[in-house]
Amino acid sequence: MKILIPNYNLPDSFVDNVSFTLRTMGHEVINMGEVSVSKAYSKILKTVKDLHQKAFPQLSKQEKFILSTIQITSVDVLLSLTQCIDEEVLFECKKKNVTTISWWGDTAANMQKHGLFSDYWDFVYIKDIYATQKLKSLGINAEQLLEAMNPAWHKPSHQQTNTDLVIAGSFYDYRQFITKKLIQNNVDVALYGPPLPRWVFPEIKKQHTQKYIVKETKAKVFGSALGVLNSTAMSEFDSVNCRAFEIAGCGGLHILENRKSIETCFEPGKEVLVYNTFEELLEIIDFAKKQPKEILKIREAACIRAHSEHTYKKRLEYILSKI
User: Fold this and answer.
1) Overall pTM surpassing 0.85 (yes/no)
2) Which of 152, 155, 228, 302 could form a disulfide with 248 if both were Cys (CB 3.0 to 4.6 A apart)?
């Protein structure tokens, strides 16, 4: 199949992992090309883009890319990854007999304009079960589908060699506060991710590595650490992010705030360690330091589960089987 993914290819991103996997499966993939981490997270470029959009409302570069692509080449599938696509663009795709699929990997709260509420989506996949039910209640062909890990680089390449608790990603309010509390409790933390916001706590700014980890480097960091804390934003509610599968795939110790949805992916206590309070989190960290043999069993069990059940290939085979 010829599959159009209308976005830029940031290393180890949703777009990158899906594009890579589809190509290994023998499909032709069209996306918008590579983009650097510095450009993708540039605050100046984002501000200019937002101001221009407010002053001169128009289709996004991604939406224009869709329209121009379907005019010059025959496309079988539009696969939108966590994007809100204007109905005008979706309608043009339907006129060209393009199958339209949305796979939303973010919290539903981050949708813009009409979000996924359109009659022109053939299939909608979203990780949040509550959002799935709301979409289905209005006749949208929606189904819950979680993200995944890429065994090409999310693999167990390193054994634990340090006592760091890794925290990787954007430092929004919740992640900042829990990180600050960990630092105040003398927990060794290793902090990674895109540029920090201006309002970051000084303790976090001081300890942040200023490194954005991807692919094999991510596998090394996750595997070498005592554990990886998978904290999520307040808007995430009861869903599972891609980090859960990446940590497990890399052979890391996955530590997560307790939520019902994780039970559909991993077995708490045997494949992932969950906590309900900050005190319980400190107890898990202490346990991980004192019981390395038990922790190794958890790491290995989670890794096996991730590589057997939670790969992008598994997810994409399911998506394409529905067409």
Assistant:
1) yes
2) 302
